[in-house]
Design brief:
74% of the residues lie in helices and 0% in strands. It has one domain (3-115). The chain is an all-alpha fold and 124 residues long. The mean pLDDT is 86. Pfam families: PhaG_MnhG_YufB. Keywords: Membrane, Transmembrane, Transmembrane helix. It comes from Marinomonas hwangdonensis.
Length: 124
């Protein structure tokens, strides 16, 4: 394996590992569910992307042609992580999970929780 490829793979793995470590630390240390959503959706997604890019380079070198499976997995993660975080936040909001004192705009949480859905006949 060429030295430049080993450097690219090593840097990508180290960068991904650092992001995963920061995301895991944030998941443990942040005080409430609303703040904890940031670490798996941002830091951990970038960490997995770094590891998958390293895997893509390695597999491309072994096979002799471009390996795109890792890019498809990364695309899937970038699409699904924000949607999953949004659903978790909505569930926490509707179950009235209390935010930490430092959470900003807490008054908006009651407004969002108590709003009514639009009438079904207004959607055309």
């Amino acid at each position: 394996m060429p030295f430049y490829l080993e450097i690219i793979i090593s840097v990508s793995l180290l960068t991904g590992g650092v992001f995963l470590l920061v995301g895991s630390y944030g998941l443990v240390r942040l005080p409430d569910i609303y703040m904890r959503l940031h670490s798996p959706t941002k830091a951990s997604t970038l960490g997995i992307t770094g590891v998958l890019i390293a895997s893509m380079f390695f597999q491309s070198h072994l096979k002799g042609f471009l390996s795109i499976q890792e890019l498809l997995i990364t695309l899937f993660l970038f699409i699904t992580a924000p949607v999953a975080a949004n659903m978790i936040a909505k569930t926490a909001l509707h179950h009235s999970n209390k935010p930490a004192e430092k959470t900003q705009n807490q008054a908006l949480m009651d407004t969002i929780r108590d709003r009514e859905s639009p009438p079904s006949n207004s959607i055309k």
